[in-house]
Amino acid sequence: MSFDFGIALLQILRLMFTTFKAPLTNRHANEQMKEILIYVNDHPHEAISVNQLATHFGYNPSYLSRMFKEQMGLSLTNYVYETKLSRLYDDLIHRDESITALMEQNGLKNPRTARKIFVDMYGCLPKEIQKRHRQQRGRSN
Predict the structure, then answer these.
(1) Looking at residue 137, what is its pLDDT?
(2) Which of 11, 29, 47, 64 is the most buried (most CB within 10 A)?
(3) pTM of the model
(4) What residues contact residue 34 under an 8 Å CB cut-off, 6+ apart?
(5) CA triplet 9, 13, 14: central angle to 5 degrees?
């Protein structure tokens, strides 16, 4: 069973844009939100912080966090982690590098937080996913 990251990402983005918690009243804010989502997805290997995004898009970090949470239904930090962890999951099933190396390559600089959110998302640790898929690849060879 292969995880198609591209399809899953598009589905997540579609759901996020069609089920905003609060309606956007400002077309500019809607465009800015899209730009933030695109930026996060286009920079998968960089460590991205709320402060960095706020500076890049010209917002106060607290305001950006609050606006993102209100409009998207999850915190900006969690969105960044979930996006990066989805890519990590894909790497775990397709690549044989160490988990530490894969985390670094996906811009996940805090392994403890990454593991915690990964378990929340997938119900197990990254090493369990990697082990399971290595075994499946071994059986198919």
Answers:
(1) 77
(2) 64
(3) 0.74
(4) 17
(5) 115
